[in-house]
Structures are given as structure tokens and as C-alpha cells.
Description:
The protein has 20 helices and twelve strands.
Amino acid sequence: MPLPRLRTFTLTLPAVAAFGVQLSWAFGPAGSGGLRMWLLLIAGIGSGLSLVLGRLPGAHPLPLSALAIAVPVVFWLTVLEYALTVTKPTALPLLLTLDAALVHTALALLVVREKADTGTFQRVLQKMTVVAATIALITSAAEFVLLRQHPLNLYAPQADDPSFGPCMVADATGRSVAVPGFRGRFMHHEFPGIRVEINAWGLRDDPREAEAPDADTLSILVLGDSFVFGVGVEHDEALDELLEARSSEFTDRRVLAYDAGIPGYGTIHERQRLAELAERVRPEVVLLGFYEGNDLDDNWTGEGLWGGVEDVSLHRQTKASLVERAREDARNRRRIGTYLEDALGVPFWERRSALAQQTRIFRRLTELGLLPPDPRVNDLMNLCLLREAPPVVEELRDACIRQLVAIKEDATRIGARLIVFLIPAQVQVDQERFETFVHSQLEHDPGEFSRTAFHQELLRRLEASGIEVVDTLPALEAETLAGRSSYHPEGHWNARGHSVAASLIIERLKRVDKR
């Protein structure tokens, strides 16, 4: 291709196109933020320079090299911004954009060489660009292949038979339910290969336990989220199985403990779950695991409350602010500025890159001391760790307590006893992890945070509401202080965590009358 035509395709057309698109977006719904103004400015200058480049005499290589870099960058950032409106904001669009921009830059550097006094600088820059483009191409290809083989959601079990479908699907109300007959395994790098089997009742339980208990059997229904489901442990290490295996410690009857935990459930879902299973399971005891890390906000989604249940009784203003915050967060993840800012942090790659997840590169760097431990918790947990709880935390906490009181009333009507066992987040148990978290919160004074204040207030209010509570925090703290962590690094209980909880619950179950 003749050099003037190559210049048109590598510099002039991309610069003019980027300028026109960015200008139209600046006056449209996308708005005109700081990044938009910079992209407009660079695209405008690039358009002007590329149009007159053919008439320029020989020039210093530095400004022309800057032009050859700036135009491809602005053009492909514009392409990326559009791509984020039609595809998921994972790492792959960024890697593909980087690769395209580097190849484009290499061609642009070739074009401007005719107008520059070619020297060592430009030759080295061009070679570096080619090498970087090659590395980016290999990385993009690896990301694409791994993304086809491994889901980004490492908590979604992979079926033994890929044609079977997912482990969890949404029912008519939008709730997640486990698919009966699913057989598969977790792919998470902290507990790879752990088996997941769903019985005929949609429970992660023994297939033989999809049966109603007889009159001589003590039936225990265990409700909860991913902790109760047993994410991170084999089924025989999970709480329900430990209660069955150690049943002689609290009763002389046969025990069936039904694992009704589903990842992502909150108290609203657990109340619905009790209503669905009560007739079949006929429980004498209902155990409910309340995870302080996210159960407060698992009762609502970006589109409103789960299943249309309105008796959560949040104030209208609070509900509106939470829903709007969720929608705004979703929009921000697709905005080019937020997306690029997120990409500068480790969490972006750990959550959105199959290559980073499967190679465990950041975990290995942390183990080598080259990266600090990741102290992040979810946004609402950040607020829960403040010594003075903000109104949104109080609203959600009180709404959950009202739901638990309603669950107790439901359990009483079917002749069952409700026991709530609190599951603190790892940051509430581990003082070192808590201090790392506090030091990462630059917008707050360290004294504004408390590791246990939210937990203690929740415990006090539950007991004041007549809820029978098993507090696992002291025992989990003791295990941590003894150097025996009860959590996987990612945050779920390991086998020790389930064992600690089982021991505490067994002590409470010793009060169950023996027949």
C-alpha cells in the first residue's frame, strides 16, 4: 500500500472518526467528563496534524512519535468505550483493545518515519511496540481460550457432563435454586475439584436423604447461603453432615439434617425455603446461618426486592437509595473511566480475568510478599465495620431481624424450634486482617472502625427479639489466635470452620428432648 494511503488509514481516518464520535458523546447521555475532554482534545489535535502531515518538512522524531502513539490510543479507547455498552466489562475487551492499539501504533510509527530524522530512539520505540503487541496477542489468546473453558464465576460448579447445564438456575420468582441431579465440582483455585451433588429435592445432600423422616427420626432443616451450602468443603465436612455424624452427642434418635443452603440467599429467601420444605421435611429444629458479610443486602437486588416480597419493611427512601446505588454501580462498571481505573487494581483481574484466576498469579505474588494482602470487603460490610452504624445499616439490620422473627413464628406454627447461628465475616474474626482493612480506608480515621461493634449489637437485638442465637465469633477468634484459621483466604469457612460451628450447635441441641 502506498505510504500516503497508509497514512490516511492509520492516522487521518482514525483521528477524525474518534474526534467525531467523542464529540457526539460529549453532547449526548454519556456526558462530558474529564476523560472525555482529554480524548476530544487529543483526537482533535491528532486530526489536524495527520491532515497536514504530508505537507510538513522533516521534523524531530519525538512529536511525530507522540502523534503515532496518541491517535491509535484515542481511537481504540473510543472503540473500547462502545464495546463496553454491548459486552460484559471483563478483562478480555481491554486485552484485545491493547493488542489492537499496539499493532496500530507500530504501523503509525512506520508512517511518521518518512517525516522524521530517524534515529535510535524511534527504532527502539518501534521494536518495543512490536514486542509488546506480540505479548499482548499471546495474552489475549490465552485469555480467550481459558474463558471458553472456565467460567469467570469460580463459585459456579462445573458439571461433569457439560451438556447438563448449570448447577443453579432462577425459578419463576427470580430466586436461585439448585438443579436436581446435578453432578460436578468446584473450579475455584483455593478448593479445586471439591464435589457438588444435588439430590432429587434440590439439596446438596445425600441422594438417599431425599425422603421424609419417620416418626422416630429427629429432623433438622439447615437454612442459609453459600456457607450452609458448603462452598469450599466436601459434603461430608459440611455442617449438616457433621450433625448427623455426631448425633449421639445430643440425642439417641436417628438424625436427618437437610442442607437447604443456597448461595446468595438472604433471610427473605430462607423464609420462602422453609415454607416450601416444611411439609416434606417436617423439621423439629430449624437451623439458620446468618452471614454478617452480606446477608443484610442479599434481600434486595438492583431491580428491587427478591420475589416481590415487600414485608421486609425498609423505608421507601432507603430502598430507593439502595436500588439507585446498585444501578449506578452497574452503569459505572461500563463507563470507560471507571473501567480503566478498576483495571489498575488487582481485584479487577482476579474477578474478571480467566488467565489471572487460573494461573493464580496475584495470589502467588502475595505469598511471596511482593503484593500486600487484599483487605477488600463489600461496600455494605465497609459500613457495618464503622463504629457508628449509618442509617442504611440500621435499616437493613432491623429488616433482617423482622424477617427472622417471622421465620421463628413460621417454625413455631409447624412445631419446630428456630436456632440462628451467626457467621461473622473473616475480617470480623481476624484482627490482622481487620487492621489491614482499616489502613486501606484512607477516607476514614482508623478510630472510626470497630471489628466487633456491629456483631455485638446484632447479637443483642436478636436476643432481645426472642431469637435463640448461637454466637460463633468467640470460638472462631480463639481458633485464629491459635494459628488455626477457620476460613479459606477467599472468605468461606474451611472444614475447621464447619467443625467449630457444629460443636457449638451440638451443645445447644443437647437441650432437645430425647425420646
